[in-house]
Amino acid sequence: MARIVIANWAEKTLEVTDLSKTLLRHLHDHQLDWMHSCGGKGRCTTCKAIIAEGAENFIPVTAAEQKYRNMGALKNTERLACQAVITGDVKIVVPDEYKLPHINYAMP
Predict the structure, then answer these.
(1) Which pLDDT value is given to residue 106?
(2) What string of DSSP letters covers the chain?
(3) CB 46 within 8 A of CB 98
Protein backbone atom coordinates (compact mmCIF):
# COMPACT_ATOMS: atom_id res chain seq x y z
CA MET A 1 0.00 0.00 0.00
CA ALA A 2 1.11 3.57 -0.66
CA ARG A 3 -0.13 7.05 0.08
CA ILE A 4 -0.40 9.89 -2.45
CA VAL A 5 -0.72 13.36 -0.94
CA ILE A 6 -1.59 16.36 -3.13
CA ALA A 7 -0.06 19.24 -1.20
CA ASN A 8 -1.85 22.15 -2.88
CA TRP A 9 -5.21 20.39 -2.91
CA ALA A 10 -5.56 20.87 0.86
CA GLU A 11 -3.30 17.86 1.49
CA LYS A 12 -5.83 15.52 -0.18
CA THR A 13 -4.62 12.01 0.61
CA LEU A 14 -5.23 8.84 -1.38
CA GLU A 15 -4.50 5.33 -0.18
CA VAL A 16 -3.64 3.01 -3.08
CA THR A 17 -2.94 -0.69 -3.17
CA ASP A 18 -2.30 -1.63 -6.80
CA LEU A 19 1.22 -0.33 -7.38
CA SER A 20 1.17 -1.35 -11.04
CA LYS A 21 -1.06 1.58 -11.99
CA THR A 22 0.11 5.00 -13.12
CA LEU A 23 -0.27 8.04 -10.93
CA LEU A 24 -2.94 9.36 -13.30
CA ARG A 25 -4.94 6.11 -13.03
CA HIS A 26 -4.83 6.32 -9.21
CA LEU A 27 -6.09 9.91 -9.34
CA HIS A 28 -8.93 8.97 -11.67
CA ASP A 29 -9.78 5.85 -9.66
CA HIS A 30 -10.41 8.23 -6.73
CA GLN A 31 -12.66 10.41 -8.95
CA LEU A 32 -10.19 13.31 -9.00
CA ASP A 33 -9.97 15.55 -12.04
CA TRP A 34 -6.40 15.91 -13.31
CA MET A 35 -5.47 17.60 -16.58
CA HIS A 36 -4.44 15.20 -19.37
CA SER A 37 -4.95 16.55 -22.88
CA CYS A 38 -3.57 13.58 -24.83
CA GLY A 39 -5.66 10.99 -23.01
CA GLY A 40 -2.82 9.74 -20.85
CA LYS A 41 -0.60 8.52 -23.68
CA GLY A 42 2.60 10.43 -22.86
CA ARG A 43 2.24 12.71 -25.89
CA CYS A 44 2.06 16.02 -24.03
CA THR A 45 2.96 17.41 -20.62
CA THR A 46 -0.42 18.56 -19.34
CA CYS A 47 -0.62 15.80 -16.72
CA LYS A 48 2.68 16.72 -15.11
CA ALA A 49 2.99 16.60 -11.34
CA ILE A 50 5.64 18.34 -9.29
CA ILE A 51 7.27 15.93 -6.86
CA ALA A 52 7.45 17.53 -3.41
CA GLU A 53 8.47 14.38 -1.50
CA GLY A 54 9.18 10.75 -2.25
CA ALA A 55 11.00 11.03 -5.58
CA GLU A 56 12.75 7.77 -4.70
CA ASN A 57 9.33 6.08 -4.66
CA PHE A 58 8.78 6.40 -8.41
CA ILE A 59 9.91 3.96 -11.08
CA PRO A 60 12.66 5.32 -13.35
CA VAL A 61 11.75 7.96 -15.92
CA THR A 62 10.05 6.50 -19.00
CA ALA A 63 11.13 7.11 -22.60
CA ALA A 64 8.26 9.57 -23.06
CA GLU A 65 9.31 11.52 -19.96
CA GLN A 66 12.96 11.51 -21.05
CA LYS A 67 11.92 12.96 -24.41
CA TYR A 68 10.27 15.91 -22.67
CA ARG A 69 13.22 16.32 -20.30
CA ASN A 70 15.54 16.50 -23.29
CA MET A 71 13.28 19.18 -24.79
CA GLY A 72 13.29 21.17 -21.54
CA ALA A 73 9.54 20.68 -21.05
CA LEU A 74 9.85 18.46 -17.95
CA LYS A 75 12.11 19.31 -15.03
CA ASN A 76 13.91 16.76 -12.86
CA THR A 77 11.37 17.48 -10.10
CA GLU A 78 8.41 16.75 -12.39
CA ARG A 79 6.87 13.53 -13.69
CA LEU A 80 4.10 12.80 -16.17
CA ALA A 81 1.20 11.40 -14.16
CA CYS A 82 0.23 9.19 -17.11
CA GLN A 83 3.67 7.56 -17.15
CA ALA A 84 4.84 7.60 -13.54
CA VAL A 85 4.26 4.56 -11.34
CA ILE A 86 4.81 4.81 -7.61
CA THR A 87 6.36 2.21 -5.34
CA GLY A 88 5.74 3.98 -2.03
CA ASP A 89 4.47 7.17 -0.40
CA VAL A 90 4.71 10.41 -2.40
CA LYS A 91 3.67 14.03 -2.09
CA ILE A 92 2.87 15.91 -5.29
CA VAL A 93 1.82 19.41 -6.30
CA VAL A 94 -0.44 20.46 -9.18
CA PRO A 95 1.53 22.92 -11.37
CA ASP A 96 -0.09 26.36 -11.61
CA GLU A 97 -0.35 26.19 -15.40
CA TYR A 98 -2.42 22.99 -15.27
CA LYS A 99 -4.83 23.77 -12.45
CA LEU A 100 -8.45 23.20 -13.41
CA PRO A 101 -10.84 26.14 -12.90
CA HIS A 102 -13.52 24.22 -10.99
CA ILE A 103 -11.15 23.02 -8.24
CA ASN A 104 -10.20 25.09 -5.19
CA TYR A 105 -6.44 24.58 -4.86
CA ALA A 106 -5.09 25.63 -1.51
CA MET A 107 -2.35 24.79 0.89
CA PRO A 108 -3.62 23.55 4.26
Answers:
(1) 87
(2) -EEEEETTBTTEEEEE--TTSBHHHHHHHTT-----TTSSSSSSSTTEEEEEE-GGGBPPPPHHHHHHHHHTSS-TTEEETTT-BBSS-EEEE--GGG--TTS--B--
(3) yes
Q: Which residues contact 44 (CB under 8 A, 6 or more apart)?
A: 37, 38
Q: With 90 as the cut, is the pLDDT of residue 69 above it? A: yes
**Domain boundaries, given as residue ranges, for the chain:** 2-98
Q: Could you tell me the pLDDT band of residue 30, with boundaries at 50, 70 and 90?
A: very high
CATH of domain 2-98: 3.10.20.30
Whole-model pTM over 0.90? yes
